Amino acid sequence: MTNPYTSKVAVITGGSRGIGYNVAKALVARGSKVVLGDLLDKEGEAAAKEFNDKAGKQVAVYLHTDVTKYKDLIALFALAEKAFGGVDIAILNAGIAGDAACGLFTPLDDRADMFIHEVNVGGVVKGNKVALLHMAKKGKGGVIINTASMAGFAAAPSISAYCATKHAVVGWTRSMVNLEAVANIRANAVCPYWCETDIIANPKDEVQRQFLQATPKTTMKYVVEAFLRCIEDTDLSGQALLVLPDGVHVQDQYIPPESCFTSEFLEKVPELAIAGVNLHKENLAQAVKLAKL
Ligand SMILES: NC(=O)c1ccc[n+]([C@@H]2O[C@H](COP(=O)([O-])OP(=O)(O)OC[C@H]3O[C@@H](n4cnc5c(N)ncnc54)[C@H](O)[C@@H]3O)[C@@H](O)[C@H]2O)c1
């Protein structure tokens, strides 16, 4: 079996600290090159320097990247191509919570209300589209991993807007299941439960502080393990991996009730699935041509 890490290049958004940094560190330790994109330049540059110094050669680069902007994401993936010859693994991990995480009682403000959606959902959607074009251009396939959350399944009134964004990331990622047949790209979502990072370091009120203090948490070790599993396990495609206090679990897919299926429909499904893959192959080829990346 070929090594899934050596000679591989991973683009990681939100790579300056926390989960993104730790995943980058694990990938570099296994022989991959990493391209980090984040808003936190000092931390991102320090991370790249740390990895390069330790390796004694260039294995990491950093670029200031706002994941809400196509321009920045296009530049980040172009850097992966320029510095290391392309991208094999795209990890769309940047995300925010904080004051925007609830959103129910804030002023009626078009821009402010959509901001968390632009970062947590927009950053994933736009990043996936740029990654897909790069991977398809090379024709070698690849791995896409999106950081969702346990909040992509569970409902939590104190972080309702955050839950909405992470449900969206789960739905988007699961819907990319046929990319494996279309372009040999496996897309999966990692969905951590609470994990000690800066994103949960400043609770917005006393109720949240007490909740965070009392709730069990998962560990960074398990979170990193989930990302590595998405890379190594070629059976995983369109899946969501929960990272719970007791480890990593693949979440069951939702199966619609029987009333959604008739025998005529079921007969037609295999034929439609093939037609859908062929249509997406044509659409992707056209998109690569148009994007000129
Ligand atoms: N820590 C947890 O409990 C937990 C649980 C579930 C999911 N997550 C998710 O994990 C991901 C990583 O979070 P973390 O826990 O490492 O927290 P973190 O705050 O340490 O890391 C988030 C990173 O994203 C970056 N970022 C934010 N907005 C950005 C933007 N517009 N463009 C580029 N970068 C941006 C931040 O600068 C930071 O480096 C997030 O998507 C978060 O929602 C975290």
TrEMBL record:
Family according to the record: Belongs to the short-chain dehydrogenases/reductases (SDR) family.
GO molecular function (one): oxidoreductase activity, acting on the CH-OH group of donors, NAD or NADP as acceptor
Keyword annotations: Oxidoreductase
Xref: SUPFAM superfamilies: NAD(P)-binding Rossmann-fold domains (SSF51735)
GO CC terms, sorted: cytoplasm
Organism whose genome encodes this protein: Phascolomyces articulosus
Keyword Oxidoreductase: yes
Entry protein name: NAD(P)-binding protein
